[in-house]
Amino acid sequence: MREGLGCSAAMSDLRIQRPDGDDALKDWQFVHNTIIPTHLLSLEDVRERAQRHHLEVAYAGDELIGCSTVRPPADDALTVTVIARVLEAHRGQGFGEELYARGLSRARELGAEVIETVVLSSNEDGLRFARKHGFVEIERYLLPGDSIPWIDLRLAR
């Protein structure tokens, strides 16, 4: 956020878009890799994810502030995963709320009956955000080679 701007000024300058080229994909990659340093993605990984998932990247003016992922239902399951990530310097300013609301709307467009999210257990801000929005923990696990558990959470109805 630019010096001297309040939250409302920054929010009016918020731009959220699907990545439309390598520069925007690299921005999405940067946010992901910064917030999830245990699972770094290459640009090729991000390109592949952009084919399977609905990715968005968020800017306040020209400044990168976050990204989101909506994983559509797999097979016959009507479970959609919504993930909103905001860089630490931009948390607590409403950006996560906007990213989450957009992801939730997209999940409902996809016919979601169950909405889940996943958070790295070391991301206390992310866990607090998920719980504040009605998510409850359903599973904790380690991926091969990881030492920090992942937490799957489900939106309670």
TrEMBL record:
Protein's name according to its UniProt entry: Acetyltransferase
GO molecular function: acyltransferase activity, transferring groups other than amino-acyl groups
One Pfam family in the UniProt entry: Acetyltransf_1
Organism: Streptomyces lydicamycinicus
Keyword Acyltransferase attributed: yes
Cited InterPro entries: Acyl_CoA_acyltransferase, Bact_Acetyltransf, GNAT_dom
Record's keyword terms, sorted: Acyltransferase, Transferase
Keyword Transferase belongs to the record: yes
Occurrences of domain N-acetyltransferase (ranges): 14-157
